[in-house]
Structure formats: C-alpha cells, structure tokens
Design goal:
Strand order of the largest sheet of chain A: 1-2-3-5-4
Order of helices and strands of chain B: EEEHHHHEEHEE
Radius of gyration of chain B: 17 Å
Number of strands of chain B: 7
Number of domains of chain A: 1
Number of strands of chain A: 8
Strand content of chain A: 5-15%
Distance between the termini of chain A: 28 Å
Largest sheet of chain B: 7 strands, antiparallel
Helix content of chain A: 25-40%
Shape of chain A: globular
Helix content of chain B: 25-40%
Oligomer: heterodimer
Shape of chain B: elongated
Largest interface: A-B, 33 and 25 residues
Number of helices of chain B: 5
Strand content of chain B: 25-35%
Structural class of chain A: alpha+beta
C-alpha cells in the first residue's frame, strides 16, 4: 500500500499554530479506523438515550470501555449522515487535520425510539471517537479561552476551512462544532466535528461549483494563515483519485446508496482539481 | 366550607442527571455527579426543578479540567442561570432536552428519561401551584439525594408553575 504524502502539521512561514494536536492513542485509533469502513474488534453498545438534536446522537461504549458518540439515532434516509461523517474523517486523516476518527457500525438488537420521530433508529450508524479526555463545545468555554489560545488555532481553522470547502461542509456553526480542551496556555487543542450535512447533502440540490465553505468562525480572524491554506490545498490536490475512490467505494450500500456514492465521488474528484481556485490560492 | 378531597394531577415527568465526565474516552473512568433535573408536564401547566450541588471536594476539583475548575466550584451557581435560560427559551416540556443538546461532552446533561404516567397530589386547602411545587421539591430531594449519594451539600429550586393557558 502506498502511503499518501501528508502536509506538515506546522507549515513553514505560517503563524506557527499546530494543526492537529490529538494524543497518541487517538492517532493510533485513527491509523486503524481510517483504513477500513468498519473497524474490527469493537462491539458497540448504547449507554444513553438519544439526544434530541438533528441527528439524535447517542453515547456508546465497546467491551474494552472505549467510549464514542454514535449517529444517527433516527431512521431518516434523506441524508446519508453516517457515511458523510466517515468519508470526511477518512479524508481528513490523509491530511492530518483535527477531525476525530470515525468508524461505521451495525447495531444489533432492538433499537429505541428516537425522541423526535418516535420511531426506532437505523442500525447503520457511525461512531466518532472522542479526540481528548476532556473537551466541550467552543461556546461553553468562550469566556475562558485566552487571546493567545485563540491565535494558536488560526492555522488549524484555516486548514479545516480549505478541507470544508473541498467537501462542501458549509452549514457549520463553529461555536457548536468545534470541541476544545483549554488549559489557559496555547496551543489550544481543537477537534472539528459534525460532517453529516456535507458531501451529497450539499451537492444533491446544488453543486456549489467553485464556492468555498462559508461557515461562522468561533471568533473574528482578520486573516487566514496563508501557509496553512496553501499547504492543505496542495495536499488535497496530491491525494490520488484512486485513494478518494477507495475511501468512498468501501462504504456499504446500507450506509450510502449508489446514486449518492457516485455523486460524492464525482464531486470530490472535480473539486479536488479546482481546490486552489475555490479557496483563492495559486499552486505552483 | 373547605374542600376535604385530595385531588390528583396527572403529568408526564422528564428526569435527567448532570455529570462531569473526567475522561470522556473511557467508560470506566470517574464521573462526578452534580445534580438532578426534573420537568413535569401537566394537562395545562409545566414546571422545572433542579437539585444541584453547592460545592465539590478538593479531590473532585482536582479531577475537573482546568477550564471548568472555577465555574464548577459551586455547580449550583453555574447551572442556575443556564436552567433559567432554558426555562425562558424552550418550549413547554423541552427545557431538559434543550440543555441536554447543549451539554453533551465532558460536562453532561443526560438526555431525559420519560415517565408518562405520574400523579401529583393536591391536598385540601392547598392551591394547585403550591401543591405541585411541594410535590416536585419532595421528589427532587429524594432523587437528588439518591443520585448524589446523600452526602454532598445540595440546593433545590423549582421554577414557578407555568400555565400554558396564560
């Protein structure tokens, strides 16, 4: 197997902000999970009721006590939420971005009612690993995150913005979709979550040709980190078509219907070639 | 002539726990129990109550991530405005669900569990609102002490009983 070339996590000439700060255990998990659709060796069981939010996620644990967040908790097939989370995570792993590892899983047994639809959920879910032992939404810590900590995330947020532009993850509310683990000192550890509404959800009704991600920043950034933007744009172009195809095509039809799979593959490949134009940089 | 019959009010009860999970990644790690939330939804009224700790031990504070230590030194003080906000902003019967959707990582408000058929007593000569609040306060005390293992200092409060006709 040929390893993909990875961009530096600390691009030369940038703000010096590290892009990805996951612990060794999480990186090890990512190394395994990102190379397959359904990671072996985990039998996940539910350990809480569904949250009453859009995808009705719920907490799970495996027999070794590893904890994760599963979704969707409902059986709406309007969006391939689990497949989108998985594809985004696997592509992000190639780029060493701060997006937690995700695996697909088929739940066994009786599925409880989702609080919104009042119907049992789907057994075909994804499980996202927690990136840090302790973290919460950005909004929960906004009052205690220092300016230095904020500044330390600019490279990472700039890199994720390029990635999100590639996969059209442009519904994001980053005060909610960035998990942070502040300590009062930079660098601030971040993990970007919730890619359910990217990819075919974005492209089914609107191809969003040449449009960059337009998401709300958790704080005002005067200027994105140009080295991080260019570094990730180059790295995206450098991912082979075959690797993108492998990541998309290995998702089972239970999680991703063929028509959506084809739409995702077509757009990922087209947008990969145009990513510099989409985010407004020149790759020489 | 005073009424000598105890009335019963049927209601749905939503109940949730507030926890701090010291290690999110491992289910066998320590959880610090912080409090209990209860929301009753009657035919034309609802009420929200909380039983939340007023302090943490030194060992517990040390186990909490640095970013939370000051704010969780008195959990009641932290959660009181949050719960008031949910009471103000959420639809009737959705207060705990709102909070649970917002606190789902280290600081956790569990998705509420539903008990469809609860009966609240209204003794003779007690106003409806007062009777409901007494019942809720008693339940919060029982459930709070059960979840928090009796020992910690606890503060219990309820919202006013909100009439949906109003």
């Amino acid at each position: 197997m040929v390893e993909q070339e990875r961009p530096p996590t600390n691009p030369e000439g940038g703000t010096g902000g590290r892009i990805q700060l996951f612990d060794a255990d999480v990186l090890k998990l990512r190394g395994t999970w990102s190379n397959c659709a359904v990671a072996l060796g985990h039998t996940w069981e539910r350990c809480a009721a569904n949250q009453n939010s859009e995808s009705s996620p719920f907490d799970v644990k495996d027999k070794d006590g590893l904890r994760g967040k599963a979704n969707p908790g409902h059986n709406n097939t309007d969006v391939s939420r689990a497949a989108h989370e998985k594809i985004a995570s696997d592509l992000a792993a190639l780029l060493d971005l701060p997006i937690p590892p995700v695996t697909l899983f088929k739940l066994e047994g009786v599925l409880p009612q989702d609080p919104r639809t009042k119907l049992p959920g789907t057994p075909f879910v994804c499980v996202s690993a927690w990136a840090f032992p302790s973290c919460d939404e950005w909004a929960k810590h906004v009052a205690v995150i220092t300016e230095e900590e904020k500044a330390s995330t600019i490279a990472a947020l700039s890199a994720v913005w390029v990635f999100d532009s590639w996969i059209s993850a442009d519904d994001r509310l980053f005060s909610k979709h960035i998990l942070v683990s502040p300590t009062g000192k930079p660098p601030l550890k971040i993990a970007c979550i919730d890619y359910a509404f990217s990819l075919s959800r974005s492209w089914a009704s609107n191809p969003r040709t040449n449009i960059a991600a337009n998401w709300e920043m958790p704080f005002e950034i005067a200027k994105r980190d140009p080295a991080a933007v260019l570094g990730i744009a180059k790295a995206i172009v450098g991912i082979t078509d075959a690797k993108v195809g492998e990541i998309v095509n290995r998702i089972g039809v239970e999680w991703l219907p063929p028509a959506r799979r084809d739409l995702i593959l077509k757009n990922l490949l087209e947008r990969k070639g145009k990513i510099a134009e989409i985010v407004g940089v020149t790759i020489v | 002539m005073s009424n000598s019959v105890t009335s019963l009010h049927q209601a749905r009860r939503l109940q949730s726990h507030i926890l701090y999970r010291c290690d999110l990644q491992h289910s066998n790690s320590v959880n610090i129990h912080l409090g209990v939330l209860i929301e009753f939804i009657g035919a034309d009224w609802n009420v929200l109550g909380m039983a939340v700790r007023t302090d943490l031990s030194e060992a517990e504070i040390a186990a909490v991530a640095p970013a939370w230590r000051t704010r969780l030194a008195c959990p009641f003080k932290y959660f009181e405005p949050e719960i008031e906000r949910a009471w103000r902003d959420a639809e009737s019967g959705k207060c705990i669900e709102l909070l649970a959707s917002e606190y789902s990582a280290s600081l956790l408000i569990e998705p509420p569990l539903l008990n469809e058929h609860c009966l609240l007593r209204q003794p003779p000569d007690v106003e409806t609102e007062q009777a409901i609040r007494i019942e809720v306060l008693e339940l919060l005390d029982t459930e709070g002490r059960r979840f928090l293992n009796s020992a910690p200092a606890l503060k219990i409060e309820t919202s006013p009983v909100k009439s949906r006709a109003a």
